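During the second year of the project, the team shifted from modelling isolated chains to modelling whole assemblies. The rationale, set out in the original proposal, was that interfaces cannot be judged from single-chain predictions alone. As a representative example for this report, we include one of the complexes processed in the last quarter. Its constituent sequences, exactly as entered into the pipeline, are reproduced here:
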Amino acid sequence: MLADAWAYLLDGANWVGDEGLLPLLLQQLLITVTALGIALVIGLPLALWLGHVGRGGFLAVNVSNVGRAIPTFALLALLVTAAWPGTAYFGPYGRAGLATLLALAAFALPPVITNAYVAVREVAPDAKEAARGMGMSGWQQFARVELPLAMPLVATGVRLALVQVWATATLAALVAGPGLGRVITDGFANTDYGKGIAGAVVVALVALVLELVGSVVQRRADPMRVAVRPTAKVQPATS
Amino acid sequence: MTLLATVTAAVASRPGAAAADEPVCYSRTVNDWVCPAYLVDRREQLVDATVQHLWITAAAVLLGLAIAFPLALVARRHDRLESAIVGSATTLYTIPSLALFPLLVPFTGISATTVVLGLALYCLTVLVRALLDGLRSVPPDVVESATGLGYGRGALLWRVELPLALPIVAAGLRVATVSTVALTTVGTLVAHGGLGNLISDGVFSNFRAQLLAACVLCVVLAVVLDVLLVGLQRLLTPWTRGAAA
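Output from the structure prediction step:
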């Protein structure tokens, strides 16, 4: 089986064409980035604001626990079977594209919200008090003190979400949706295990690369690289 | 038509199911999301899938715990090994489940073993960290007192350190169990996904009643196991009860 997988990967013809590894890989990256973007646009402002005013902590922290208990596959299955969004083609996102984007964005929200909320919440009270003492308005406190100090942990949440969305995007294939997972499910459905394993190798490698790139970018972008950095509060539910 | 008549009578409260010759609510023409008749007629199938789901989850978490325990003990003693062990567990965690199962197939085949092993590997990240944090939370004074009382390494571990580490370990165990319940559904790729098999079948045959029932059962299973673990932990650590409340 491993030899079959190797042969599949080495055959250039398997990488190009409509159902080739490369276009499916690009499609899954597009889906991942879009879904993460949606989750950031919705989740970040909400979580940062909740953290700033110090409300809704129960919700922000427990959203992760709820997210963990709901299987991504189950949500995807419900969305594609429902009348809307169903399995309709959605531009470059392919069959069941909209359903996939919605499910992925929903599962990217918990790590983003929880980490961003905790990050702002746990900014040292001394720093906030000093900012207030200097006469900063609420917005100035947030933008100049809380946000810079919270940035590393917020970034951790985004990185966790990125890797998780990539993993979840693979599951779309279980409902005949878009992305690289299709190579895996097709291979297994047709007892072409070499193909299935080859797809799995590519999916796993890209996941590792995303994780690596994410942590390098995060380290480079951290203004306080040498300072002791708080660790992530949540472990995302993997998919 | 007596069977159909009984079934429709059972759901007579549902709108549209009043007439005796109308099709049952899970028939292809009606295809309701919520259909009590389905739950009654296919009870056996639902129970079988739930049982499979439950034992795969239990086997995976227990296997994960069995692997994580010695790893945590080794990691605790050797700092350099700790980063290697925690690092590899985290790397495994990064691999999507739909890709991890196929990667195990050459070694374990199309079997439940593939799913159990894959899920056990996912548990490692959470469990190794929880065990390490738990063991480190034991106050040094307590360890010193126990050593002074003549406890050997083994007795110290089993009778002093592990009981005190239990609340933190149990928290990790809950996280691992709840995510394992959700992930077991992906096992449908190798035909061993418990309720995931019913979800998959529900999607491809457009069987809404079966799909919704399997999804709801998954979440219920996760919540029930979580509550059971909380209860077990309270039972095993009676001394934390006052402080926690």
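The domain at 42-237 of chain B is CATH 1.10.3720.10 (MetI-like fold). Chain B is about 75% helix and 0% strand.
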